[in-house]
């Protein structure tokens, strides 16, 4: 809470100097630890003209020589549905280098405690960590509540992963935010990682179908053991 109050005070003090509003609808942030790029939907650096889609294309620092990252939000996919797609090429002289990226969306309507499902698939020459978090106060890029996470280290090069978790969206504001994140680490040489990461809050009917499916699996197992 103290961190948020401090950030609010700083944002108020900067006023017109700030490059992007605190409550932006959809935004990307990429960082190699020394260089940070932040792009908001429809703002400077967004190469995709569609509303509900934000795309960055370029380098991040000197190690990450090529990056094309696209984030899709609920404005295009539907409420509580986000998708992060990224292609990353690095050229590291020695040691390792890490690129982190976040796709955030604010202004999502409160629905109490919701279930969030995440699925990722791709290829990597290094390692990939991924996850999602939410903020019931609705701030962009804030990690108030961890929803779920996972990781993969090559080999094998191809990977898939999934998680599910709960998010309490009913906080101090009428809307909440959700952020999808990924962290890629490459070693020396020319390396490549690409992935697609989908995170969504299923509709109640979908959750009911999933529950029926799990009941069916349990019933089938009981029949086999009896």
Summarize, please:
With 226 residues, this protein is an alpha+beta fold. The protein has helices at 2-14, 74-77, 204-225, and strands at 26-31, 36-40, 53-60, 64-72, 81-92, 97-109, 113-124, 127-135, 145-153, 158-168, 175-186, 189-200.
Over all CA atoms, what is the radius of gyration? 19 Å
Structural class: alpha+beta
If classified by CATH, what would the architecture be? Sandwich
Task: Give the biggest beta sheet.
Answer: 6 strands, antiparallel
Report the strand count. Answer: 12
Q: How many alpha or pi helices?
A: 3
Task: Give a quick set of tags describing it.
226 residues; alpha+beta; Jelly Rolls; 6-stranded antiparallel beta sheet; 3 helices; globular
Task: Report on this structure.
The protein is an alpha+beta fold. It has a single domain, classed as Jelly Rolls (Sandwich), CATH 2.60.120. The protein is 17% helix and 52% strand. It contains 3 helices and 12 strands; from the N terminus they run αββββαββββββββα. The strands form 2 sheets. Strands 2-1-6-11-8-9 form a 6-stranded antiparallel β-sheet, with no helix packed on it. A 6-stranded antiparallel β-sheet has the order 3-4-5-12-7-10. β3 (53-60) and β4 form a beta hairpin. The longest helix is centred in the last third of the chain and has 22 residues, at 204-225. It is globular and about 50 Å long. The N and C termini lie far apart (54 Å).
């Amino acid at each position: 809470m103290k961190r948020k109050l401090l950030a609010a005070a700083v944002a108020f003090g900067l006023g017109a100097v700030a490059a992007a509003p605190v409550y932006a609808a959809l935004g990307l942030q990429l960082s190699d630890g020394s260089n940070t790029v932040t792009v908001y939907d429809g703002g400077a650096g967004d190469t995709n003209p569609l509303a509900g889609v934000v795309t960055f294309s370029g380098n991040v620092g000197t190690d990450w020589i090529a990056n094309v990252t696209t984030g899709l939000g609920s404005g295009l996919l539907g409420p509580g549905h986000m998708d992060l797609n990224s292609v990353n090429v690095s050229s590291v002289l020695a040691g390792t280098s890490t690129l982190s990226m976040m796709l955030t969306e604010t202004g999502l309507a409160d629905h109490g405690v919701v279930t969030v499902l995440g699925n990722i698939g791709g290829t990597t020459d290094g390692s990939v960590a991924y996850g999602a978090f939410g903020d019931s106060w609705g701030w962009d890029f804030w990690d108030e509540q961890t929803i779920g996470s996972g990781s993969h280290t090559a080999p094998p090069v191809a990977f898939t992963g999934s998680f599910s978790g709960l998010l309490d969206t009913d906080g101090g504001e009428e809307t909440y935010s959700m952020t999808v994140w990924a962290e890629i680490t490459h070693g020396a040489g020319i390396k490549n990682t690409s992935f697609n990461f989908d995170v969504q809050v299923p509709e109640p009917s979908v959750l009911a179908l999933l529950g029926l499916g799990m009941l069916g699996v349990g019933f089938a197992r009981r029949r086999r053991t009896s």
